[in-house]
Amino acid sequence: MAGPPLLELDRLSTHYIAAQGARVVRAVDGVSLRVEAGETLGIVGESGSGKSTLALTLLRVLPPAARIVGGRMLLDGEDLVQKTEPEMQDIRGKKIAMILQDPMASLNPLFTIGNQVAEPIRVHEHETRRTAWQRARALLNAVRIPSPEARVKQYPHEMSGGMRQRIVGAIGISCEPRLLIADEPTTSLDLTIQAQYLNLLRELQRQHGLALIFITHNLGIVAKMCDQLAVMYAGRVVESGPVSRIFNAPVHPYTKALLNAIPRMDDPDRRLNAIEGQPPNLAALPPGCSFAPRCALAMPRCREAAPPEFTPEPGRTAHCWLAEPAAAAGRLIVSGAV
Amino acid sequence: MSIPAEIARRSSPLAAVRKVRMRDYPVIPLAILGIVTLVAIFANQLAPHNPEVGILTARFKPPFWQHGGSTEYLLGTDQLGRDVLSRLIFGARISMVVGFTAVIFAGALGTFLGILSGYLGGWVDQVVMRLTDTWLALPALTFAIFLAAIVGPSMWNIVIILGVTYWTRYARVIRGEVLALKEREFVRLAIVAGCSKWTIMRHHILPNVINSAIVLGSLMLGVVIIAEATLSFLGVGVPPPQPAWGLMLSDGKQGLMVGYWWLTVFPGLGIMLLVLSANLLGDWLRVKLDPQLRQL
Fold first, then answer.
1. What is the 3-state secondary structure (H, E, C) of A13-31?
2. Which domains does chain A have, with CATH numbers?
3. From the CB of residue B155, how many other CB atoms can be counted at a distance below 10 Å?
């Protein structure tokens, strides 16, 4: 796609600073990513790899201990890191919206559904109550809530889990944002509702030309939903690129290990391949590549120097010495070994 | 108990009676508060005499059932010949007005500061909470007397003084609630939807803490009524000749030694019944509206 991307992250770093700087947790460390308009980016990684902190960084709603210590985030060419808090308030919900990890608890129990769907519309577009409510009804219709006329007057406890989830989705798209961030929105749902909800999200995305950032640790959802994939490990993006390319030919050993760890229905006798060891302590990262202690292919140099970003093929990146052009010749052997 | 016996027990006619009791509305406190409220509202119609003007020839008349009493003055007269019943009736008005407005004033102030403190955190929290600590370290009544001495006695000054004295309890409790609330997902959703802090505090935090504020208010009502009576008793509250119950107690205390018991017993009884009703109602509301407040 030509032209500048919708969102471009350039060596973005967010650190949690505790005890007056004596303890620094590098939750997001030099992340560079691009999201094109209308595209879906999946971000996967283990718990504690910095996925959620990255999402909070994008909206600048970090907890008090966290600081954006470097980098830029360009939304339509404007750097969000430089924005003031009132400017960010206009962006939140209007240009970038977010669906939280537990949509079931995301509704205020004391207000009607209509009130809550209409709230961002009233905050951002200063609509009158009447028009905002009309739009709220249309939105409920769009997320396939039956009889929205009656539902707008009901309270969250009168809804099923799947419905509340769709209402949260409706709130997300209420001001027609350019980018929607979904932070593990389906973890609290059962599988059938999950599938319905994902279909709905995809449909909304097509209709509104939304870009979607989908944070998950479910690679199955990534395969179904996403165009691009970024794999995070210990606060860094270790590999990124088009989903199909990464699934077919992962470069980074961590990505390979993740793909290997997916249970296979067609071969029930196969043992699950867990990744040995634990994710590193983000406050005391090992020198060199942070995956090296768990990597089956680690070389002496991996423990000495962190690999820079390499471009194994156009549109892909990898932070691994194995992707270095000089090592590419040996890659055939390497992929044969895993 | 066997199952058939249990069914029989539950479906017996007695069970219906038990069920009604289970709902346990505090009937007596509600009735007392209701009567006092009505009396306060219709004081002008109910009082047989002017409460502030007496007839000096009719001083120290006992209640009608005692020797020397008459039905002209049902509960007797005081040292200035004023009708005790009329003064009680108008005193109810003062107790209720001061009690309710002071509780509402303290509640509004404390809730506002509690929400600010809990939601904004940081230095705002530090300032409000240290202020609260300091306030709580002062003996409340002495502090109220001190304020009354500065601003001078009048009914509305008493309201302000009591509000300024008792807001701290609200601030503490509400702040605690807000600290828990602001971690809830719906507050975070409001943040990522671009609501300003002010909008969030008004639309999402306040409605969720109002229950606790009401419960606390009902419990504070008794405290505030007692405090008003105490201030009036000490002569720094509602100024004479207005008929505050505390003032009536104070005026009647010398008479107690020589047998003029009706001057103190009736206002004392009034204060006691009113405060007891307020407390019982508060206890019931507390359990009813917010089980989490039980530990308070």
1. EEEEEEHHHCEEEEEEEEE
2. 37-62+84-231 (3.40.50.300), 249-265+286-338 (no CATH)
3. 17
Rounded to two decimals, what is the model's pTM?
0.78
B88 touches B267 (CB < 8 A)? yes
Question: Cα–chain-centroid distance for residue A53?
Answer: 10
**Model confidence at B23, in pLDDT bands (50, 70, 90)?**
low
Q: How far is B217 from chain A (nearest CA, A)?
A: 21
Which residue in the block uniquely carries the two structure tokens 């020589």? Answer: B258
| Residue A241 in contact with partner chain B when CB distance is under 8 A | no
**d(Cα A134, Cα A114) in Å, to the nearest integer?**
9
- How much is the mean pLDDT over chain B? 85
Please name the CATH architecture into which domain B28-295 falls. Answer: Orthogonal Bundle (1.10)
Residue in the block written with tokens 């500065």: B150
Cβ of B189 under 8 Å from any chain A Cβ? yes
Q: Is pLDDT above 70 for B17?
A: no
**Chain A residue closest in CA terms to B122:** A64
| CB < 8 Å from B in window 48-107 of A | 59, 61, 64, 86, 89-94, 97-98, 100-103, 105-107
Residues from chain A contacting residue B185 (CB–CB below 8 Å): 100-103, 105-106
